[in-house]
Recover the amino acids of this structure.
């Protein structure tokens, strides 16, 4: 059975792939230096914070022009057909539980994982049980940082295996096309 595709919330991803399949459990591995909030807040209708306070998430999202609702983890069991971002702190067993909720409620659950939060083995298990993987990274080149993302895995949808660079201008996401052709 073919999964329904819905907007991911990232314009360039939607333009290339059409969006993400629903239901899905997606691991989003982020480098905090890469200003991942520019991508993450666009990927969700609801947000479950664990690292940041509710007030910080709301303020950041509003500053970036996103309208998201901050909820507790228990609340996502009541949601249907929407995109949820969870600041993920569990192990692969918790990932399997969230995946089951996503499949039961037709959700896209984006599990936000900090780049160096897990040992490689545990991160590999998280990515293995995920339907999709999004990687948001930064790289220091000379005097500046380069920000980029890729989607190396998307079961039921289209992957973007090559990195796409993005840049920030006044806290707004813009795709850097100076070197990459998309």
């Amino acid at each position: 059975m073919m999964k329904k595709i819905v907007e991911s919330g990232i314009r360039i991803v939607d333009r290339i792939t059409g969006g993400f399949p629903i239901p899905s459990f997606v691991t989003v591995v982020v480098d905090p230096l890469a200003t991942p909030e520019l991508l993450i807040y666009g990927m969700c209708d609801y947000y479950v914070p664990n690292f940041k306070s509710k007030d910080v998430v709301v303020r950041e999202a509003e500053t970036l022009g996103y309208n998201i609702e901050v909820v507790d983890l228990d609340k996502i069991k009541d949601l249907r057909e929407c995109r949820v971002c969870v600041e993920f702190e569990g192990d692969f067993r918790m990932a399997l539980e969230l995946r089951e909720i996503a499949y039961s409620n037709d959700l896209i659950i984006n599990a936000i994982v900090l780049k160096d939060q897990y040992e490689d083995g545990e991160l590999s298990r998280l990515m293995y049980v995920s339907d999709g993987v999004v990687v948001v990274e930064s790289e220091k080149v000379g005097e500046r940082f380069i920000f980029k993302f890729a989607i190396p895995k998307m079961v039921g949808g289209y992957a973007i295996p090559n990195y796409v660079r993005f840049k920030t201008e006044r806290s707004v996401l813009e795709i850097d096309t100076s070197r990459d052709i998309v």
